Amino acid sequence: MNVAQGVAGPLMVSSILLQLAGVSGCPSSCLCTADILSCGAQGLEQLPAQMPTYIATLDFSHNRLARLEEGEFAGLPRLDALRIAHNRLTRISPGAFRNSSGLRHLDLSSNELHVVEQHYFLELVGLEELLLFNNRITRVESKALTGLSSLRKAYFSHNRLTDFPFFSIQEHSHPSLHTLDLSSNRMPKLPLEDIAALPAAVQSGLFLHNNTLICECAMYAMFRRWEQRGYGSVRDYREEHTCLVYGERRASVRFFQHSRFFQNCSAKVQSLPGEPALSLLAYEGDSVLLDCRTSFGRGRGRRQQLSYLWVSPDQEYVVPPGNNGSLRMFANGSLQIVAARRQDSGVYLCMALDRRQPPANESREVNVTVVARHGEDESFNTGFTTLLGCVVSLVLVLMYLYLTPCQCWCRRRPPAPPPPAAAHSPGNECSAQSSILTPTPPATTEGPGRKASGNSKHVVFLEPIKEVQNGRLRATLAIPPDHPKLQHPRGDTDSITSVFSDTPIVP
Question: 423, 487 in Cβ contact below 8 A?
């Protein structure tokens, strides 16, 4: 084989590979691997005209795309995930996702979208996750999410929303939705009735922190209910839940930590059909409103066919207008605890009867717990604990000062200091030990330069004499060197033995 043939071989192989690449349709400057096409950070201003039909994951993040045109993904029937984050998208043309009903993951975050129009996602019936955070969205049209029946997660945080069409999200239209992130927007008020009508799964995953909410009792009561039910959207972001007092931006409060701003609010709890018994925590003196909601509906004609009855924890039947004044009941079925007391705690049962034919009834339970306001019990408990500690300390001091822990039977007072010859008489065996905690100081063996303490105090220093050795204080025992109880020399640190010493005293 000559040189020309040797060079032609590799060139032919390269040509074949290039031809295969051309047939596959992988755009230049992009990376095709298995069923993934990645064209990230290539400075693209428009999508490639040709893309492989087998692609399931398409990534065009960090480019300069400004618009999605009609039918741009129609040739990708297997498309499952589309990522166009960090671009310059301002609008999506009608039909842009035609033939993309199998798309499940769509990431349009960090773009420049201003409005989510109702035609954007009409074809995406299989979409499960929608990422639209960090745009400039000021409005979401009422039917923009209507066709997304498979939607599970939707993220709209870090936008400029002042409201949201909660009424368009219902259990029958979005049965799988459990995460809706609307945090870090500009919503001043919330449509509480529309939110209360959402399925419990949506409420538990509805994130509303870091908005410009105006402080009001109804808003506060809703978040308190979510906290009592253990919703993660509140539990995990308690410090980020803020509201503006009187709408002033400079007067922002974390209402879970500064609940004193809402002490005059009436605590309200709504019992929803199909939910287990609710639990409500109220403070003494609060006006608590229990709402008996049923599945019978709230229309005017329907409400006239309903009658309500409450049973208190004391098994008292309550009907409008209420009982002797502590409980007030309204025609719409709501029960008000006028001024909550500790004895009002317990389970309240609401029964609703539909008198139409055939008759039907429903019942709801609310567990109410009434506690003292924060700081009332604590101050009493703290004062009582302090007083009790002082009394116990005083008793212990008196016991130390006036009770003699004598361990021998002799009780006589020690005699006057005997002459040196009688210092070891048997009759004085218990004298030194009996003298502990007594006004009379014990007898000590006098030596050169040693003096016994003459002060009559309740603290007896058994070794007041110290000698200096090598510049350190050294205690000298008042015991003859040949005494049988002197087993080893004392250390330098045992310079002074106080009244609380455990060391036996030897005369």
Answer: no
Which tokens go with 155?
């993220």
Q: Assess whether pLDDT exceeds 50 at residue 362.
A: yes
Please give the Cα distance from 87 to 66 (Å, whole number): 7
The model carries a pTM of 0.54
Round to whole Å and give the CA distance between 9 and 130. Answer: 50
Residue 88: its H or E element: none
To the nearest 10°, report the CA torsion of 308, 312, 314, 320.
Answer: -50
Distances 389 to 383, 395, 396, 402, 403 between C-alpha atoms, Å: 10, 10, 11, 20, 21
pLDDT digits (tens, 9 = 90+) for 269-288: 554 444 555 667 778 888 88
Cα 503 to Cα 19, 99, 382, 433, 499, distances in angstroms: 101, 95, 39, 10, 10
The CA-based angle 226-228-230, given to 5 degrees, is 70
Return the DSSP state at 86. Answer: S
- pLDDT band per the 50, 70, 90 thresholds, residue 502: very low
User: Residue 149's CB: how many other CB atoms inside 10 A?
Assistant: 15
